Amino acid sequence: MSILISAAFDSGNIRPTAILDDRVTLEIAHDKDSDFYQWFHFRALGVRGRPITYAITNAGQSAYPGGWPDYHACWSEDRVTWRRVADTSYADGVLRFTHEAQGDAVWFAYFAPYSMERHHDLVARIAAQPGVALASLGQTLDGREMDCLTLGDGPKQVWLYARQHPGESMAEWWMEGALEALTDPADPIARSLRQKATFHIVPNMNPDGSYRGHLRTNAAGVNLNREWHEPTPEKSPEVLCVRNAMDATGVDFAMDVHGDEAIPYVFLAGFEGIPSLTDKQVSLYAAYQDALVARTPDFQKAKGYATAGKGCANLSMSTNQVAERFGCVAMTLEMPFKDNDDLADAEFGWSPERSKKLGAACLAALHDVIARI
């Protein structure tokens, strides 16, 4: 049977360039109207019992080529359990991985995908829980709703939002874990948090890019996390509607959930360079980091991004804009595409399951500090 490569499905992205015997060469397609590309997700059919080598030949020109060394591609035959391809290598700008499927078809992806169908299932399931309200904050350029789940009745206003960069699918796996924990009636941390705070949760900030198979941009080719200073209906309605909703409620605590291509650790990025930085903001951010370290060994503080100097923060980015705009504590959570090198897992790497557990741990850490916010 001939090998067939396809990506014409939700979040699919690949372009086959040649198939010769048991070798397949491929290219990742750019985000629409953008130079960004790195996310891939495709199916190979006709591969049962054959060790096939796949070569992504334009990997070296991708958005973050530093993400490829020590990276292992994700694979699944049932689209439920995603493992890592042990035989993955990167050299001379080409990402290669060799895999022998047990069945007729196998799916490969940069990280375990989180489909729009699963997003709708998650939103419906959580919205059906007692005390949860579902609303649309607006529509995307492709006409999709910007789902927002609201729960809790406490005075603190907490905003959690994920997947501004759609290829960072671990961010919505994190959301699934956080939402399941927060709506668990038997969880005392969740019950206490819902008494102390009102949560506004946007599980997917970029549904258009998610469906289109983009790495970093929306349907207009715009990086949403560079639009928070001046979002517009024409380029970034996703940011505009969320920021308007934040203006209506105020913000006491905000977390923007992401994935990082190159750094094999879980870490936080803060807002140290904003013009109006206060000692209280600095203290609360440090306290939250310490609480998260205590809650999960998957989090650490030693590795991460360099901090901006005083007054040098980029206010087009959400964490900086929100911290400056509301005088609150805000942060960007980063998870790895590769693995957490402190707790490496050769079979699964960083995974959906670990992302979900981190979501619950982040809520527990918030509970540890919310009285100070």
UniProtKB/TrEMBL annotation:
Q: Which GO terms describe its molecular function?
A: carboxypeptidase activity
Q: Does the keyword Hydrolase apply?
A: yes
Which residues carry out catalysis?
A: 334
User: What is the top-level taxon of the source organism?
Assistant: Bacteria
The cofactor required is: Zn(2+)
What is the name attached to this protein's record? M14-type cytosolic carboxypeptidase
Q: Which organism is it from?
A: Sphingomonas abietis
Establish whether keyword Transport is in the entry: no
UniProt lineage: Bacteria, Pseudomonadati, Pseudomonadota, Alphaproteobacteria, Sphingomonadales
- Which keywords does UniProt give here? Carboxypeptidase, Hydrolase, Protease
List, alphabetically, the Pfam families matched. Answer: Pepdidase_M14_N (PF18027), Peptidase_M14 (PF00246)
Q: Where is the Peptidase M14 domain?
A: 112-373
Q: Which family is annotated?
A: Belongs to the peptidase M14 family.
Q: Which CDD domains match?
A: M14_PaCCP-like
